[in-house]
Design brief:
By secondary structure, the chain is of the alpha+beta class. The protein has 13 helices and 6 strands. Helix 11 packs antiparallel against helix 12 and helix 12 crosses helix 13. Belongs to the PNO1 family.
Length: 275
C-alpha cells in the first residue's frame, strides 16, 4: 500500500512550464532633426565685417554671393549698411546647421580678397581652409627689404605667385604684408613653405625646382594609391578560390588597368608581390 501511495504521489506532481523569453521592445526609429530643431527653434546668426576697400567690389558681385547662399544653402543673408556688416542667419528650410558656418567662411574669404569663383569652393567642399599669416611672422623686414620681399612673392606680373598657385592647387592673396592661402591642408603647407623660402631670400628658380620635386612626389603617391585600389579590385574580382595561386602576373594587372586608366605602364611596386 505504501508503495502504491508513493507512485500515486509521484504521478500527481506537475511539470512546471518553461519561462517564456522576455520580449524586447522594437528598435525605435527617429527622423533626423532639422537645423532649427537642433537649436531648439533658436535662430543662429553670423556677422562678417566689410573692410572699406572691399565695399565697392561687394556691391558689384552681390548677386553672385547672394544666389548660392540663399537658394542652395538655404541661409538668409543681408547687408547691414549702418554697421557695414554682412549678416547671415538660419531659417526653417536650412538642411544642415553647418551651412551657416560655410557661408560665413565664403563671405569672409571674399572680404580677404579672393574671387567669388575661387571662394565659392568653400561651399562645395569640406576639406578647404583659409590660412593667413604676415611677413613679419617669418622674418622682420623694414623699408626696401620688405618691398623686395613682396616683389619676390609676386614676381614679374604675378608670375611667381601664379606658378605656386598652379603647382599646389591653391589660391594666394598678397595684401600688403598679409598673405592669405585658400586650399586643402596639405597643399596649403606646400604653398606656405614656398612663400616662406621667398621671404627668407631664396631666388625664384630654386623655389621652382623644389616645387617641381614636391608636386611630382605628390602626383606619384596619388597615382600609386589609385593603382593600388584598382589592383585590389582586380584581385577581389578574379581571385580563384582554392587554387593556391599566391602570385599574380604583371601582364594581367596591366590589361585590367588599361580598361580603367590609361596608365598601364606605371604599375606600382606592390603589383605582383605575394598576397
Amino acid at each position: 500500500m505504501q508503495a502504491n501511495e508513493g507512485t500515486t504521489s509521484m504521478e500527481v506532481e506537475k511539470v512546471l512550464p518553461e519561462p517564456k523569453p522576455a520580449a524586447f521592445p522594437s528598435k525605435p526609429s527617429f527622423k533626423p532633426l532639422k537645423a532649427h530643431e537642433i537649436s531648439e527653434g533658436k535662430v543662429q546668426f553670423r556677422k562678417v565685417s566689410v573692410p572699406p576697400h572691399r565695399y565697392t567690389p561687394l556691391k558689384k558681385v552681390w548677386m553672385e554671393i547672394y544666389t548660392p547662399i540663399y537658394e542652395q544653402m538655404k541661409i538668409d543673408i543681408r547687408m547691414n549698411l549702418k554697421a557695414r556688416k554682412v549678416e547671415l542667419k538660419t531659417r526653417k528650410e536650412t538642411p544642415d546647421i553647418s551651412n551657416l558656418q560655410k557661408c560665413a567662411d565664403f563671405v569672409h574669404a571674399f572680404m580677404l580678397g579672393f574671387d567669388v569663383v575661387d571662394a565659392i569652393a568653400l561651399l562645395r567642399m569640406d576639406e578647404l581652409y583659409v590660412e593667413s599669416f604676415e611677413i613679419k611672422d617669418v622674418k622682420t623686414l623694414r623699408g626696401e627689404h620688405l618691398s623686395r620681399a613682396i616683389g619676390r612673392l609676386s614676381g614679374k606680373a604675378g608670375k611667381t605667385k601664379f606658378a605656386i598657385e598652379n603647382s599646389t592647387k591653391t589660391r594666394i592673396v598678397i595684401a600688403d604684408t598679409k598673405i592669405h592661402i585658400l586650399g586643402s591642408f596639405a597643399n596649403i603647407k606646400i604653398a606656405r613653405d614656398s612663400l616662406c623660402s621667398l621671404i627668407l631670400g631664396s631666388p625664384a628658380g630654386k623655389v621652382y625646382s623644389k616645387l617641381r620635386a614636391v608636386t611630382a612626389r605628390l602626383a606619384e603617391s596619388c597615382q600609386r594609391h589609385v593603382l593600388d585600389l584598382i589592383y585590389a579590385s582586380y584581385m577581389h574580382q578574379n581571385s580563384p578560390v582554392g587554387s593556391g595561386r599566391k602570385f599574380w602576373h604583371r601582364e594581367d594587372c596591366c590589361k585590367y588597368t588599361e580598361q580603367h586608366m590609361n596608365v598601364a605602364g606605371n604599375i606600382p611596386p606592390s603589383f605582383g608581390t605575394s598576397l
